[in-house]
């Protein structure tokens, strides 16, 4: 059979075959995959009313439109899936390998979060200086983005790794990029100040990531410090201290006097031991995450990486994001050269050809060549993605498609005061939709919409509601670049109405049958090539061509699921015939029609929801 043509250029039909394309692909990319001429696809799209050039990125909707036309099932692949597939072509996977029984215990990785000025930086410095090993080594400790200390618990030396960039940004930025680095969050709250907006923000981040929290009640040396009040305040957020019967460890500390630091380290280890089974395969090819990257004047690109599995060694061929190279040297936070780095060990890697980004994953591969090829392919992909004309995150309008699977709408609520935020949240939670859809507020707070809010929204496909507040500088830019849906309201009920409507759109539609008309069969005609046609008189309503129909004989449904495929009055094809008129009705290949049968027609209409 000749290929069907469109606009004079022939196109290979896919007959429903699947073709996978990365986000941001162009018609040239598609053409290559399906063996077509790019120009033919451009023409085809033009006939569908879309003007694009062959090399321009095409958004998913347009690709689907074109796919339907040329009978290819076009699937747009996410960057994560794409990267997985890229690695698969080299027979690589990012993840744990081997038998869990052979894995070895690894230290916990801890991130410190909390409100500004509550002492995160000071606490990280104080902990760094507890390190016996470091003091003995005598080297000058450098900031490399993470460090490891060793503490004693029940006569065992136990290392703990700290991510040395306090604050939520690195935490959420990494999470947004799919890197799960943190095992435990230390929530720092100043005892003389109490729970503040960023305290809440931090704990929301941690809870959204399902990371256990240890609370460090800091500055207990200060006058007016009230550690009991902090415990009290945090119960409202689901953090109940062990001494009150909960399962969160609270430790009173002072970063200044160093009081309570040992207890804090113990609490971290106990929390890790109680709720996490931290193990890693030390034998497999090393993999992990980039914590920090920079260009050093003398040494070139330097990246601090956290080994997550395997043992990283000097001389390894490594690919980190779109950077690659050979590990020339490994340095710890004291500037000491290491021969190897075990899981949970942060280490500076020298020898990359370019600077990877925080949150990029790294892998060690067999050959330099493979590392370079992977890096090249990723670079090409990053370029493509940047060129993509549109990168759609979830928005209220396309909730339905986006949330088909998890049927949960995540929200972040920011408002001008805590009263309105609470009122809005409460009202939203009262919206009743149905059992299979839920609304979850993953973060709420007072103040403008920050970059950190948008980061959080990115990680979870969230809609951000601003009540009498606006997005601040960088946040606006990030939100629009990443396509995060940010909505502003100044009237509560308006917000509720919109969310309610969106949730209703999320529901699987319910259909009901609506009767359109009935006709009685007076005669049956045999028409060549068409089959039997019912010469009928319309008894009620209207008979419409293409409507659904059933055939009833003596009050019994003989056939359901029929379609009025032809409808004629005398010799003319018509689209509808009203009651009282005669017509010829053809029911497609269904021929069992008898005189006095009744043809009922109906359509399925989406039921409006109450
Ligand atoms: P960050 O913004 O959370 O990183 O807070 P910093 O670590 O920069 O600390 C903010 C201020 O609080 C600094 O002036 C610190 O010296 C002070 N500070 C931090 N911890 C303590 C503490 O335990 N006791 C006292 N008295 N002051 C502290």
Fold and architecture overview:
- The protein has 610 residues and is an alpha+beta fold.
- It folds into five domains: 2-77, no CATH class; 107-277, Rossmann fold (3-Layer(aba) Sandwich); 281-383, Elongation Factor Tu (Ef-tu), domain 3; 405-506, Translation initiation factor IF- 2, domain 3 (Rossmann fold, 3-Layer(aba) Sandwich); 511-606, Translation factors (Elongation Factor Tu (Ef-tu), domain 3), CATH 2.40.30.10.
- 28% of the residues lie in helices and 34% in strands.
- The chain contains 16 helices and 34 strands.
- Strands 26, 27, 28, 29, 30, 31, 32, 33 and 34 form a nine-stranded antiparallel beta sheet that branches. Strands 7-8-6-9-10-11 form a six-stranded mixed beta sheet, sandwiched between helices.
- Helix 1 (27-34) crosses helix 2, helix 13 packs parallel to helix 16 (492-506) and helix 14 runs parallel beside helix 15 (473-482).
- It is elongated.
- The relative contact order is 0.08.
- Guanosine-5'-diphosphate binds next to helix 5.
